[in-house]
Amino acid sequence: MTKILITAAGSYGDIAPYTGLGTRLRAAGHEVALATHDSYAALVRAAGLEFRRLPADPRTRRAAIADTADSPDAAEPDRPPGPGGNRDLMRQAAAFIKELGGGLADAAREDTGLLLLSATTAPLGHHLAEARGIPFLDLPLVPGAPTGDFAPVVSGGRSLGRWGNRAAGRLSLRVIDRLYADATRELRARLGLPPATPRTVRRRVEAAGRPVLHGFSEVLVPRPTDWRPGLDVVGNWWPWHAPDDRLPPVVEDYLAAGPPPVFLGFGSMAGGEGERLSALAAAALRRAKVRGILQSGWAGLSAGHTAADADLLTIGEVPHALLFPRMAAVVHHCGAGTAAAGVRAGVPTIPVPVTADQPFWAARLASLGVATAPIPFKELSGDRAVARLSHAITQATAAPARRDHALAAAHRLATEDGAGEVLKAVERLAEAAHPAG
To answer: Global pTM?
Structure first.
């Protein structure tokens, strides 16, 4: 049995997958704590994991970079801005990370036997591991290492050619190093470590050839051909939900009352635009002659209360694993987890990417044949917005080939066991740390 600390920071999609991973590790006999923000304490505890607090909660700290998510130039905490990020956003990101660093040190107890680190927390967790001699494993949800196969995921999804992709990837890492500079200086001083820059520590970790397990599927992103050994793509680990979970009765009643509806939600994106987006969604769904479910999310989407809105239902948080397979199609922002959930459900997607890595995932879904052409969020306005979204919904729901592609991708995804691969890696690390005999 190993005492494991998982650390994850950001919005719901950056946290929830680690609850499923944590329960898998716990079921194998390990003692698991998940350090994250207060907003997700109930989620962590419901999964049977110990909750430990990290500061800079995006839901309550309005200066955190997650709360600039309604800006077209914003980035989520688990996906720092790319080389083109504006200076104000960079300052906000650095402040978020600096606050996070102190909390990370507080979350690790003396008896911690293994650190499992998300993309945001890994550059901080490496210093903690160095100071306390704790083994660690990086578990990002998006590809981060430079490759010629594609440009950095935060660059918009457009290839720059093999040389350009690799150059942009290296530049992206230097931008991230800069974001972590202040936090690194303070954290190393607090931990009694000699000064070292984020770039120095990052290169030291890379040179050691340590394993990095990426929590996405090769169905969406095949492992890059030029990655070093040890950078592995193992498949998703999915958000936890109780085995006896069911959709709320109001949702079941709505589903039973007519044909499968179209889901529409933006997760932690589009804060403050709920009224506009709700009206747009309702008009597009009516024009496409389909029923709809609006997930309120951080935008605050809500169906109206007139007779014209009778074919719309507003919901809060429900497991995508239960809801998406019951849909005719799903319209969403294409965060990594939501994109994967749509593929897992075997239903077509209408991607409306907002920022950060979302255009990357949207392009991947379209190239796989499971999604319509992406509609960038910034273009979902003006006189043509309703017609454009309605047309995409009709394309997604009326084309059998797209659903066939989605079902085929779902079957491939079902053969993967990302959490099981992490469990194997954890047990190898535990055996190396405490060899028998």
So the answer is: 0.90
